[in-house]
Give the backbone structure.
Amino acid sequence: MTQPPALHPAPRPPFATPEAAEEGFYAAFAAIDPAAMAEVWAEDPDTLCIHPGGGLLQGKAAVMQSWMEIFSAAQPPTIEVELISARTQGDLAVRVLLESIRPSGGPAETASRVLTTHVFRLLDGSWYLVQHHASLPLRAGPQGGDPERRLH
Amino acid sequence: MTQPPALHPAPRPPFATPEAAEEGFYAAFAAIDPAAMAEVWAEDPDTLCIHPGGGLLQGKAAVMQSWMEIFSAAQPPTIEVELISARTQGDLAVRVLLESIRPSGGPAETASRVLTTHVFRLLDGSWYLVQHHASLPLRAGPQGGDPERRLH
C-alpha cells in the first residue's frame, strides 16, 4: 500500500519569519514526520515543550523524544489553528494559538481544542521554535477550568 | 477583626524589569489583592490569561474579573516559584516558571504544581504582564499527560 501524496509538504528551514517556522511545525505535526519536526526546533539548551497535561520537557533531545512517541502511536491528524496573539521584537517572537486537532477524517465534534503559546528565536538567519506550551481546557467556556483547582 | 500585616507588601509600578513585574504578580497573588494585581497587567487589548484547565480570557477586564473571582473564594496561598527559562529582547520578555501553590500553612504535599509562561511588555517606562498561560500537569513525570490525549 502506497502512501498518499502529502497535500502540504512540510516546509524546511531557513524560515524567514516566525509564521513560516510555525507553518513548518504544524505541517510536520499533521504529517507525523519526526525529521521535519526536528528541523523546526532550535538547537538551544533552553528549548522546552509542555504537552497538554504534561510535565516539563527541556532540551531538544527530550522534546524530540516526546514527539517521536506521539507520532509512533498516531495516525496523521487534521489540525486547524486560529491565531490569537502575535508579538515580535528583534529576534524573539511569541504567538498564541487555538488548535483544533482531530483524527484525520474524524468529525469536528471529536476535535481536541488546545491553547498553545509558541516562542520563536531568530538564529543564524532562520526562525526556530524554542518553546511550545500547550494546555487543554477541561471544559468549555471562558471561565472553564477544574473547579477544585480554582485557587489558581 | 483586623487584617494581619502583609509580610511582603506587593510592589507597585513602575516595574524596572520583567522580574520586578513578576514579583508584583506573585505578591498580589499571595496577598489575594485585586488592586495590586490590576496594576501588574498591561492596558493592552491583546492581554490574555489562561488559567490551569481554563479557557482563553482576553482583555484586561476579563482577566481581572477572573482574578477577582479566584481571590474572593480563596485564603491567601503560599506560593513558591522556580524560574525555568527567561528571554528578553527590547521591550518583550518571556519567562517560564514552575509554581508551587498551596493553602497558607498547608503541607507541601498539598501543593499544586503549575507550569506557567509569562509574557511581559515594556510600556511607558514600566514592564507589565500581557500574558499568563498556566497549565497543571495531570500526573507526575516528564512524560506526564492524559494518555487519552496523547495525540498531542
